[in-house]
Write a structure and sequence with these properties.
Four copies of one chain form a homotetramer. The first copy, chain A, is mainly alpha-helical. Helix content of chain A is 70%, strand content 2%. Chain A has a two-stranded antiparallel sheet with strand order 1-2. Chains A, B, C, D: One of its GO terms (cellular component) is voltage-gated potassium channel complex.
Chain lengths: 259, 259, 259, 259
């Protein structure tokens, strides 16, 4: 019995396991939708009861699932302390805590982490792992891209400080942190328009910042492209003629010798 | 007679076919312009009659064309059920439906699909098919880019939820969906400025989102560039074993035969 | 005398030619600054006379230069009808036309073309020609990028029309052209914020447009990168005749010698 | 004694040197935070005294450090005239100048250069030097990218001038410089929304500018990617010592063996 339950809950090869996964997926989606919709003031006001019952239904289902998982796991403590055990706990804890200590309504936002459980059900983690090459490229290029980030931060602090002096508080550049915020908004080409240069000198410096920000994006893109190209291209040398050949070759395409 | 009409309507090698195509192209452009201009309140109010007559002229011309196409097609039902047959029907149906059931004015927007007919006249579909390599690259990289989309969606949901807690309804972050909308606007560097962080903590988190969004664009660009480079670079088929090999090969690296 | 003048005006190898170039460069910069500054209402109001005299000084200098160029050119008519002859004429014509037919003040904007003359003085055209490889890449990829432009235009028309139906005139989406303008602003990630979705459905569709626009930039970047890489990488110099030939050549395709 | 102090201050191999570095790093961070926070009007008003004492504490510590550095340096004048000597002087000078000539409050912003000292403590300069390849690529591609900048500036001036004529002062396009500022904001896809086209023609031209700006980013990205790929691809492994060396080497630059 316990073994069958284990297969249904933790695995997905059996029919029961697949049904359990599909059922769970729907409950997770509904539970996240509840969190989303409950945050809309008009909805939460007029359908307070509906949300209350829906939330508790979902929480009780998740609680049963959590207890079942503990019950069927070969090493319950290992499961509880594992990453997914923690996420499962986080999915139900906020509702109970809200019952005991009401008033910390914002805490309920933690329930958004239920979304992470979709990753387990859909086996997305494995899927992500499969594209390891890209992560290797991302990792090795992030090391190099850090120079880019130092450059961006330096530009943003410099431009922000200059604009604080040039424009001043009366034009919205109240303080250096505020001006740096403006510089980030500008250099990344987001451009909200909540803070905007008013003086001629300010507009000129802002234009410079924009063109720098517009062109500098080439740097991480270039680094990452080259990195990913290198990671994926995987060339090796032929033992005989020393020419570079695709790493999956069985015969060298220059001299025809077996590799 | 019917064969000649078929050549004129469905083909474009003959003089008549070319004339028919040019005539049709102009009617399509005029018909789309009518849809565009009619949607402008000032114009549709003062030139109601003009639009009425223009629309019906175009519709009647398209109806004649549609009936002719059915008449000359070797297998009329095959044409009617084909993609282009459906588009042709969609070009005339809304006007007639509006005559029978007035009041659903927005339905008329469907007439915008007339634009698709330009693709047939200009043989753009064939043109697009010719750049198959890019579509293959797009397809194979979209599979990989999906990891990027999962990342963007995760970032957007996380940042949106955090900002909902940090900024709250009084600063425009009314609900989680609204905050996620803000996060999409920010991470994609669109930056409307309709919702904007007001608190210090909010501005700091927003700055982080911007820099992430600014840098993360390197990922799909890098993947697609490498993919397109690989797809286009230089593969040819081995005469013996039909496997794809680098185009500068002298020996096939799969079967070892001389190319 | 005339030959010396020709050398000074048309060439820049002699001392006189270099001095003439530097002098001309300054006059051009001043003349463009006049156009810029004159367009600022406060300045043009309070310094009307100053601008009047400055403009006429520059125009007279340019007129003298123009007449001298005609005088010293071996084939005056050829110069007058050449590209640079036309630009030189355009630099002085607006001021005289304004004298004869005042009231078309906006015509004076044509004087901005004086800026083009900087290209001649700085020999920028030759400089641009030197990076021929990039232009070849741009040209051959623009052909391919046209598919991308068709895609962008299709997305923009579709998204604009959908938003016109979903949001409607009361939210700023007055007409289809207006909505398409909004779609361009959004898909290109410019994001002015002058027209902004208000309804939930509108915000959802807008978010989709943003993510599409954010990701689709990878396409022209990828195509151009590969094109430029191919244009620059597959060439080498022939030992014999020094011409650029594909790097995998065994025989030079210019002089036929074995490489 | 002096030698020990030298080791502690200028080097970081000894225990004393490491402790000194960590201590200095904290003081620098605090001193920059003071500059940031002092610029916030509410804070500087209510905590005037706190900032006063904090600033002087930091300045005195930096002064002691500066004098010590002069004292222990083998060639004091060489240190004073060096880049870091100048930065160290710039870190303390503004506070003393403000004491002597109060009223030039904005001068205090110069203290932001203290941030540069973080680079020395963290040895970031060496770190940046290590990624020399990227800088070489950036340098050689900036030469090529300059054509791109000329293109952007030409587009921006042309589009700005056209919009000045089309939209005019009543729609916010007051002058040509103002319109060029709008064009920079638009072409770089920043899009503040402070100046926005109102007329139909203006919106059409703006849409064109956006699409150009959106697509043209492919140019520097492509050039830089190819450049960086070329800079990185010219490395090969030494047969003897396995270190990466330029691919055109005849002798390994690490172990000196012939390749």
């Amino acid at each position: 019995m316990r073994k069958k339950l284990y297969e249904a809950i933790f695995e997905s090869n059996t029919r029961a396991g697949k049904l359990f996964d599909i059922f769970l997926l729907w409950i997770i989606i509904i539970s996240v939708l509840i969190v989303f919709l409950e945050s809309i003031p008009e909805l939460s006001l007029y359908h307070k009861k509906l949300f209350y019952y829906a939330e508790w239904s979902v929480t009780i289902l998740f609680t049963i699932e959590y207890l079942l998982r503990i019950y069927v796991a070969p090493k319950p403590w290992k499961y509880i302390k594992s990453f997914w055990g923690f996420i499962d706990f986080l999915s139900i804890a906020p509702t109970y805590i809200d019952l005991l200590f009401p008033g910390y309504h914002y805490l309920l936002v933690v329930r958004i982490f239920r979304l992470l459980r979709v990753f387990r059900v859909l086996k997305l983690v494995r899927y992500i792992k499969e594209s390891e090459i890209h992560f290797a490229a991302l990792k090795s290029s992030f090391h190099k891209i850090s120079v880019f980030f130092i450059a961006v931060i330096s530009i943003v602090i410099t431009m922000g400080t200059i604009m604080y002096v040039v424009e001043g508080g009366e034009n919205g550049f109240d303080s250096i942190p505020q001006s740096i915020y403006w510089a980030v908004v500008t250099v990344t080409t987001v451009g909200y328009g909540d803070i905007v240069p008013k003086t001629f000198a300010g507009k000129f410096i802002a234009s410079l910042s924009m063109i720098i920000g517009y062109a500098i994006i080439a740097v991480p893109t270039g680094i990452f492209t080259v990195e990913i190209s290198r990671a994926g291209s995987l060339l090796k040398k032929c033992d005989k003629c020393n020419s570079l050949i695709p790493s999956d070759s069985i015969f060298c395409n220059k001299c025809g010798s077996k590799v």
